Amino acid sequence: KRQPASEQRRLFPEFAEAADExxxxxxxxxxxxxxxxxxxxxxxxxxxxxxxxxxxxEMSGADNARLWTAEALGSAPEWEQVRGLAAVVLREMGxxxxxxxxxxxxxxVGPPKE
Length: 114
Description:
By secondary structure, the chain is an all-alpha fold. 57% of the residues lie in helices and 0% in strands. Helix 2 (18-37) packs antiparallel against helix 3 (43-58) and helix 3 packs antiparallel against helix 5.
């Protein structure tokens, strides 16, 4: 089972590009997580995290700018693949598949007020 795109968009303010924010969240936590827990991860856990990271990396860059919108988050097959890979990471880690709380202490800078 995977979290739907609507749940992912709900985690961020309307003005934030949810797709971009999801990838940034993953990038920040993945690097720190692997450094700390590399020796504690099973082969399956390490492989699941690496596959998710690799897929997001493949989606990066100017050639894939179309993927980094709220619309693409809900309709692009690439994001469905990411959600599937994320579900595998959760399963491998033994973590529940549940929606994170919307208030995670993050700060977002919105567009300038007129």
